[in-house]
Design goal:
The complex is a heterodimer. Chain A is an alpha+beta fold. Chain A contains eight helices and 20 strands. In chain A, strand 11 and strand 12 form a beta hairpin. The chains are: A alpha+beta, B mainly alpha.
């Protein structure tokens, strides 16, 4: 159980500044997800912690001891890669045992620990781990082996670089829950990098949102989702609609329609609300006080299985709204509670 | 009906083009007496085969093989580490380095070899075994560096990172991960280099003869001297390693290597 601290880390590649002074503490024993779009610096940050990348400025500490200058071999981290990175010319057993062999652990002990960790990731019932090569396994099984290989060396920190991205949806869902259970069971400090917000919210104790080399927001999954502090955060999480508006005291004008507004933003504003928070009503129904109502025209609906996604024209833009029932095209009123409408001023 | 005829005649034509010249070699090698204007040899026999096997050709064959082996070993020793470094480590001027290796092939062969010959004679390596080895390596290194770099690049970097992450030194990760995975490609490069050296003609002719002969040069000399039977026999013998090696090459050369060719 090791606490990881990253202080003011900067990294530039040629002309691009991948990390612009990020500072972060990863609590010991917790699973922290680093979430963000491609190019936001999350992988760079992870690889700096692993030691594959040398940083230009800043410090990295494990339990308050500086590791910034240590080579990757000596940091005591273990990484799980997106493409599994299993060695195809070695058997499954050899793959998992590799780290232990490097540490010169005696053979009997290696055997015991490898079999134990394979049971932990639930592929102990696989016959012939000592003769089969990774290519004979499915993607999900390969990733379990990769996880076993990382866990068997009892690392200080477990680093995961989008480990589930290469797997299909069903396998991903299942492994997600298992990863969480495993991490809690072993109690290891884990850092999980992903661009999939659902994954980050589901897995993590703490979510760190990054954009363009900076940390945008840090908090529990609920905080990040329900109380995004910037327009970027609000837009990135959930299925969001982003519109331009004009804010004044008491009134917010969205696409030319005034709605009640109790916030502090004045002037040009970015208004963000989520598809799942919209209720749709007939335009002739009576207005309920305290709600935000917008008039639009429903143009199209797509059936997504669990619900319908309706595309509603509002001004010169299109708003997405989700509902379990289908709806006829035509004029419709969208209703939201005020707390679900996020308003951000010029930034 | 017409298509079948066309296809058959196409196949026949191809076979004629490929095997026609070769058949001439085969006939010459067993012709004891063949004078114009006869269409076929008057007398067939293995006289010339016997003569050849007792003579100089075996020495040329042996020397050719020996030189090829030495060239291959030396090229491997230089190229494997060099290619790994070029493939993995961020070295400045990488394109320049690779271009330097490509230069000898960029110029017409003859001027390059003629110049090299004068240089080698000046350092007293002309007409000597090691002179020929050096001139072979000029071409061999080109093949080897470009191919081997592509081979190492085709090993995903994450595989080495995974090893380093678990505590392996750079060298250990090279030895336990990159090298085993690059082995088929290294074998392919080895075969290419060996075949190149075995078949190399111009440089060997200029630098080596008349003291150091390889089979191609021997073949040339005998064909120029109107000993066509001997030339044909040498040609046939020279084909054997070529065919064998190309069959082996087909087994080891993977498309992944070719896709990485030239990517720096």
């Amino acid at each position: 159980m090791v606490q990881v601290q990253v202080e003011n880390v900067r990294k530039t590649y040629g002309k691009v500044e991948a990390l612009k002074g990020a500072s972060l503490t990863f609590a010991s024993g917790a699973m922290t997800a680093i979430l963000g779009p491609s190019g936001c610096g999350k992988t760079t940050l992870l690889r700096s912690i692993a030691g594959f990348i040398g940083i230009d400025e800043g410090r990295i500490l494990f339990d308050h001891e500086e590791v910034t200058e240590l080579p990757p071999q000596r940091r005591g981290t273990a990484m799980v890669f997106q493409n599994y990175a299993l060695w195809p010319h070695m058997t499954i057993f050899e793959n998992v045992a590799y780290g232990l062999r490097l540490q010169k652990v005696p053979a009997a002990e290696i055997r015991r620990r490898v079999l134990k960790v394979l049971a932990l990731v639930e592929i102990a019932n696989l016959t012939d781990v000592e003769t089969r090569k990774p290519a004979a396994l499915s993607g999900g099984q390969q990733q379990r082996v990769a996880l076993a290989r990382a866990l068997v060396v009892a690392p200080k920190v477990l680093l995961m670089d989008e480990p589930l991205s290469n797997l299909d949806a069903k396998v991903r869902q299942r492994l997600r829950a298992e990863l969480r259970r495993l991490q809690k069971q072993v109690g290891i400090t884990a850092i999980y990098v992903t661009h999939d917000q659902e994954e980050a919210l589901a897995l993590a104790d703490t979510v760190v949102l990054m954009d363009q080399g900076r940390i945008v927001q840090e908090g529990t999954p609920q905080e990040i989702y329900l109380k995004p502090t910037t327009a970027f955060a609000a837009e990135f999480l959930g299925v969001s609609n982003q519109l331009e508006g004009e804010a004044a005291a008491g009134t917010l004008c969205i696409a030319g329609q005034p709605v009640p507004y109790a916030g502090q933003v004045r002037g040009k504003a970015t208004v963000i609300f989520r598809a799942s928070d919209i209720q749709m009503e007939d335009p002739s129904a009576s207005l309920r006080p305290g709600t935000v109502a917008l008039q639009g025209v429903l143009e199209e609906s797509l059936f997504l299985g669990a619900h319908y996604r309706h595309y509603i024209r509002l001004g010169d833009g299109v708003v997405m709204a989700d509902s379990p029932e289908p709806r006829a095209t035509g004029p419709v009123r969208m209703v939201l509670t005020a707390d679900k409408v996020q308003v951000y001023g010029e930034q | 009906m017409i298509r079948r005829t066309l296809r058959m005649s196409g196949t026949l034509l191809t076979m004629l083009v490929i095997f026609g010249p070769l058949s001439s070699l085969v006939i010459w090698s067993v012709a004891e007496k063949w004078y114009w204007p006869h269409l076929f040899p008057q007398q067939l026999g293995f006289f010339y085969w016997a003569k050849v096997l007792q003579g100089d050709m075996l020495r040329a064959l042996r020397d050719g093989f020996l030189i090829a082996i030495v060239v291959t070993v030396l090229t491997l020793l230089i190229t494997v580490p060099l290619a790994y470094v070029l493939a993995r480590l961020p070295i400045p001027f990488k394109p320049v380095i690779l271009m330097v290796f490509l230069l000898p092939q960029a110029f017409p062969q003859l001027p390059v070899f003629v110049n090299s010959t004068t240089l080698l004679y000046r350092v007293n390596l002309g007409g000597k075994f090691w002179g020929v080895v050096l001139i072979h390596m000029v071409g061999a290194l080109v093949f080897a560096v470009w191919t081997m770099t592509a081979v190492f690049k085709s090993v995903p970097e994450t595989l080495e990172e995974a090893a380093i992450n678990l505590g392996a030194s750079r060298f250990k990760s090279f030895y336990s991960v990159s090298l085993p995975l690059a082995t088929p490609g290294i074998i392919a490069s080895t075969l290419l280099v060996f075949l190149y050296s075995l078949d190399e003609f111009t440089g060997t002719l200029l630098v080596g003869s008349p003291f150091v002969l390889t089979l191609p040069v021997y073949m040339y000399r005998t064909s120029v001297g109107y000993e066509l039977q001997v030339a044909s026999i040498s040609a046939l013998l020279l084909m054997v390693p070529g065919v064998v090696l190309l069959v082996l090459l087909e087994r080891y050369m993977k498309s992944e290597y070719l896709s990485m060719f030239g990517r720096i």
